[in-house]
Design a protein that fits this description.
Elements: E1 5-9, H1 14-25, E2 32-35, H2 46-49, E3 59-62, E4 65-67, H3 70-80, H4 93-117, H5 119-122, H6 130-154, H7 167-176, H8 178-181, H9 190-199, H10 203-207, H11 211-215
Parallel strand pairs: 1-2
Antiparallel strand pairs: 1-3, 3-4
Helix pairs in contact: 1-3, 1-7, 4-6, 4-7, 6-9
């Protein structure tokens, strides 16, 4: 079954990582995959663009079905392989609603983290402004407070949407993992760091850990002064 699945991915990309976690949780080990380089712009190759005209990762191919967006790929895997592995979307309407809410809210956390952590990468030198970076940091701090509150409400030892590991965690963990890697002070988001410590050794996450993170466990300190 997994042999009919092909994943094109890039190391360290949160969208790619979440699809890989979903594959592991659905017990689809043994799927085919191709690691490509962002630096070499391999995501813009003809091979990838033939499947994904946007030239982006991840690209998931299951038989003749191609799914490109990471949220779509994760939900496709859950719906297609619902009866095997971890149940990632609960049946209860209230629980399901919270999982979906947290899933889609992660886009806010990802963007605001990128706006600070990768500011110098994304903004040309002549266009950089201290006031803009300061504003980005303030936006990220405000966002982190929301997530701290969510985890406070669910209680110590809980996952993002309650007592069970869900698609919300599949989607969120690859973003949360950037905070300790980029040296964010623990006191800025203690609940999120507890959550990170609780999940980092989960089998699906360890099996899909970015290979270049294994080679170089620490990243730049772009979140150090948050």
């Amino acid at each position: 079954m997994a042999q009919n699945i092909m994943l094109y991915w890039g190391s360290g990309s949160p969208p790619c990582w979440r699809v890989m976690i979903a594959l592991e949780e659905k017990q689809l080990q043994g799927y085919k995959h191709k690691l490509l380089s962002f630096e070499k712009k391999e995501h813009k190759s003809e091979e990838v663009k033939a499947l994904n005209p946007r030239g982006q990762f991840p690209t998931l191919k299951h038989g003749d079905i191609v799914v490109n967006e990471s949220f779509a790929a994760c939900l496709y895997l859950e719906n297609t392989f619902k009866s095997q592995g971890t149940r990632l979307i609960p049946d209860d309407p209230a629980e399901q609603a919270l999982v979906y809410q947290r899933m889609f809210e992660t886009e806010n956390l990802l963007k605001k983290m990128y706006d600070v952590a990768f500011y110098e990468m994304f903004v040309p030198e002549g266009e950089r402004m201290e006031s803009a970076l300061k504003r980005n940091k303030e936006n990220l701090i405000a966002e982190l407070k929301l997530w701290e509150g969510y985890l406070e409400k669910t209680g110590k030892g809980s996952f993002l949407a309650g007592k069970n590991f869900s698609m919300a965690d599949v989607v969120a963990f690859p973003i949360v993992a950037y905070f300790p890697r980029f040296h964010c002070p623990k006191e800025r988001c203690p609940r999120l760091m507890e959550y990170y410590e609780m999940l980092k050794d989960r089998p699906s996450i360890k099996a899909s850990w970015p290979p270049h993170w294994l080679e170089k466990p620490e990243g730049p300190d772009t979140l150090k002064n948050l």
